[in-house]
Amino acid sequence: GNSVTQMEGPVTLSEEAFLTINCTYTATGYPSLFWYVQYPGEGLQLLLKATKADDKGSNKGFEATYRKETTSFHLEKGSVQVSDSAVYFCALSVNAGSTLGRLYFGRGTQLTVWP
Amino acid sequence: NAGVTQTPKFQVLKTGQSMTLQCAQDMNHEYMSWYRQDPGMGLRLIHYSVGAGITDQGEVPNGYNVSRSTTEDFPLRLLSAAPSQTSVYFCASSKQGAVQPQHFGDGTRLSIL
């Protein structure tokens, strides 16, 4: 089946620290991969995406590379800021058959950045 | 530029009551979906629609009904509310399908007593 497993939180970092949030997936087809971010009291927003193997998605200093060989899509940022404090969700979609209309989300990782 | 609008933002119900959560988008998106978010569970798909007149079940559809009479609106109905339906509900839309980036509303926080 299709599923996403991401690193359990919460993650607490100091400002300017390096961030990695691990995400691995299983998929029956050839998935597209996403990272969404949820700031307090808001809905989810797309942070970045990758649609094929070895693609690197990037946005706001965050990066993630689609690794088919390890079925992973880890999120990284070289220097986090207080404003990055949020919940981060890894997700996949597979555009085939009965799963045409579905996104599969991981459980989310709470990130808190202290000044 | 409204995007996806959900109403109400907060609601408290008693067990057995019914209600409708509203979702509207002004981007002419074909694909719309409803999720519930519970602590430690991520987002779980309730129902989705790939266009007006077409709906399908997601991962946790029991206790919820949907309809899609127009492209813009995708209401979620709770027929007989239960405490297990206490959650935060999010509506999302995209131009075509789940493979495209989703636009989310700000959510409805629902408590069932």
Describe the structure using short key phrases:
heterodimer; A: 115 residues; mainly beta; 0% helix; globular; B: 113 residues; 7-stranded mixed beta sheet; 4-stranded antiparallel beta sheet
CA distance, first residue to last residue of chain A: 41 Å
The Cα radius of gyration of chain B reads 13 Å
Largest sheet of chain B: 7 strands, mixed
Number of helices of chain A: 0
- Overall pLDDT of chain B, averaged? 93
Number of strands of chain B: 11
Low-confidence segments of chain B, given as residue ranges, are none
Mean pLDDT of chain A: 91
Determine the fraction of residues in helical runs of chain B and give it as a percent range.
Answer: under 10%
Protein described:
- The complex is a heterodimer of chains A (115) and B (113).
- The N and C termini of chain A lie far apart (41 Å).
- Chain A has no helices and twelve strands.
- In chain A, the strands form three sheets. In chain A, strands 2, 5, 6, 10, 11 and 12 form a six-stranded mixed sheet that branches. Chain A has a four-stranded antiparallel sheet with strand order 3-9-8-7, with no helix packed on it.
- By secondary structure, chain A is mainly beta.
- Chain B is built from no helices and eleven strands.
- In chain B, the strands form two sheets. In chain B, strands 2, 4, 5, 6, 9, 10 and 11 form a seven-stranded mixed sheet that branches. A four-stranded antiparallel sheet of chain B has the order 1-3-8-7, with no helix packed on it.
- In chain B, strand 5 and strand 6 form a beta hairpin.
- The termini of chain B are far apart.
- The interface between A and B is medium-sized, with 24 and 26 residues.
Q: Briefly, what is this?
A:
The complex is a heterodimer of chains A (115) and B (113). Chain A is built from no helices and twelve strands.
